Model the fold of this input.
Amino acid sequence: MKPTNTGDPDYFHKVVDCQWACPAHTPVPEYIRLIAQGEFTEAYMVNRRSNVFPGILGRVCDRPCEPACRRGRVEEEPVAICRLKRVAADHRDEVSHLVPQKPAHTNGRKIALIGAGPASLTVANDLAPLGYECTIFEAMHRPGGLMISNIPSFRLPEEVLDEEIGYILNMGVDLKLNHRIESMKAMLEADYDAIFIGSGAPKGKDLKIEGREEADANIHIGIDWLESVAFEHIEKIGKKVLIIGVGNTAMDCCRSSLRLGADDVKVMARKPREFFKASPWELEDAEDENVEILVNHSPKRFVTENGKLVGMEFELMEYDLDARGNITATRNTGTTIIPCDDVILAIGQENAFPWIERDIGLEFDKWGVPIVDTTTYQSTIPGVFFGGDSAFGPKNIIWAVEHGHQAAISIHKHCEKTDLAARMPRGVNLQSAKMGVNEWMYSNDYERGQRGVMPLVELKARLGNRKIEVEMGYTAEQIHTEVQRCLNCDVQTVFDPPLCKECDACIDICPVDCLSIVENGDEGELRTRLKAPADNLDQALYVSAPLKDTGRVMVKDEDLCLHCGLCAERCPTAAWDMQDGDILIPHVDDEARRVAAE
Amino acid sequence: MTSMSKPLIDKHLPRNKLNLTVRDYEGSMSTLCAGCGHDSVTAALVQAFWQLDLPPHSAAKISGIGCSSKTTAYFMGQSHGINCVHGRMPSVATGANAVNGDLHYIGISGDGDSLSIGFGQFAHAIRRNLNMLYVLENNGVYGLTKGQFSASADIGTKSKKGIANEQSPIDPCVQALTLGAGFVARAFSGDKSQLVPLIQAGLMHKGFALIDVISPCVTFNDHAGSTKSYAHTFKYYHPLVHTDFVAHHEEITADTSEGGAITVTMHDGGILKLRKTDDDYDPRDRAQAIETLLLGDRSGEIRTGLLYVNEDMADMHAANHLPKTPLNALPYEALTPGRAALAKLQGRWK
Done:
């Protein structure tokens, strides 16, 4: 293999699995170290820079970082990254003077943002401090988009939402509530330099089967129903409730039902558990509240008596799976009727643009999804951008935030009349973490503690009030252990080949056998003859230049490295060094500063 | 040394026949200098014992004084061990071996401990053919007293301050060959592919097995001008034979029984496969071994590998007709036969 090009910013970025997996590339180990030092405000600000809503995401993020976490490969459970984000948000001091401020003068450029969800709010957060005049149009009477209408208060308290949205509105953003945009054509004709569409995926899917019309009064579309609950238009539901679908919206529906008076809630899944779309922790939370999840039930018809819903008939399914877990055969083994008072449909949602005229040059694909560039987020009309669920269909808040960051860069470039695609590259900045003999700027010892279990409000108390936040946040002891569980993957192992004397000290001390000095070869073959076989092909091999005494190469398998620094402590010549790697992710202010510097 | 001991992560590790991972054969944290060859020898010992499925409680580690002698604490933390008087490791090993021939005796020594203060002990352990693995971690200097030349320092090698040694070195392998040892090997801490099978073979050899391991002192003898540095050893390193050790319970595959190899059956049924590298060298020929080592001194090559092996010698136990059962396993009546038996014994000299 050729020596690894560690000058490529993505090489060391990939080693930080959590940061690489995060759509917004939040520097997770960095803020966890700040929490460990008690610097909660700093930790919050590091978060806010990349993900804008640490308090919100610390509660309801979909956590793509956690399945990626190296700790989950070394032992069973990853670091509770999301929980720690909330720790930073809960324990911080006042930050209103630290967040980007309303500028003294605007630059006269007008940006329209449609929908006050996380995508538009992120665009405003990035552009308003630079002087852009941002106007957000929101159809509802409160900002937040799906964060307020679809996520129940028992998971995300309104105060948290209001505070973090407030920081952005205070930057001089004009928020027009109860202002539904009815015509894109009119928007284009208005005097805006750019338009950003972050109107979400507001249309819940319906289930058109027998009895649908007759039972309509007791059949609810999940996301609409959640919105009505959030805005207090609905305050009760029947005793027996069936939820159709088993995604995260279904979990919010079943738990909300329990708080509105239901005492027998069943979630009906068409397929076996391994096909569920809901996050494992959301399933767990629902089952913890005695929600029953029934698998292999496919909806057949709504059963009515005297024009009123009394139950639902399901086909009982059986599936054959192959070794990879794919369904190879489906059988119907009979039917069953399950009595119920209400049914909530949570079987997916779509983006819908009835307000965008189809003759204005804005193109859609055959599924009615707008054609949007995946780098610039620009539509087929220059100056019109999409982000969040409205761009590529339902994803998560953290994706909407990243879309917002990227769209903000594009909007700035559009206004500056520069090439949208010529964006600042990512960078990496390495500096030695050495403080003295065997002393590092991070705690390198391995914490054996297990992942903390979130303390929850007692069941009876939480079901009595839908606004009581169920998760209480980590205790001081749990925080102490959890921060130490982070392996500091951003403190990189960096090798300097000419210094190596091939004494094997690093190889002998490595607790996970990830180092080898071997004859070079092709990657596939090299992976088999390292000290421990490098079986995880998703993780890179770090290959050095030939060593001076034998011409062999140092190879590091990045898979299980604990970043404990023992190789560097044992190295007599400091050929191995632990270096703090800052991954530079450019935002629009970086782009603006670069232009200013030129 | 490191600031902390190695974290125990063993989820990914294979297990041997005793259901132990290689980590179960480690000892406490090394306090030697970072980069010391001895730590690498320790790692090779750990690897070799794990591969041999050696129950840790069946081994006894014995050492004298010196950097090398500290290392018995760093492997097989669950075996027997004693760190005894400077240069007296062979005496203690002899005593232990006499009363319990069932244990595997592992002596760890250095060039000071074996070739100066303990030279006489070293020679007599060989003469008695004590059944033990004797690892001599050889770095040419006294590391614990800050780098004076030891008895194994080559003529012309330079100290850290640039002074050349003018005294003749003692070569432990030549000494062992002339004293009649049945297993003599030389290795390098920087090449575990050679060292690990030699340790396994040495431990399975019935009788005295010497492995002289060049194990650089990274602090006092790893500079330009030293003949025991990493760079010098890599440059002149020359294995004469490649050794594969096949334990008796392993199947002999084509890979290990290729043509041209010399096969030596060990006492316990294990097999040594010795492959010549480029020389016409036969490790069963003692005279050739001595000649090669003495010539090697002039060419500058460091000749390594299993230099001599003879499996047909009686060890101390056999030669002295010592009891097969360890004394600690004998019944009380046999161990202390009583007044009458004593009187009968004394009667023989009346």
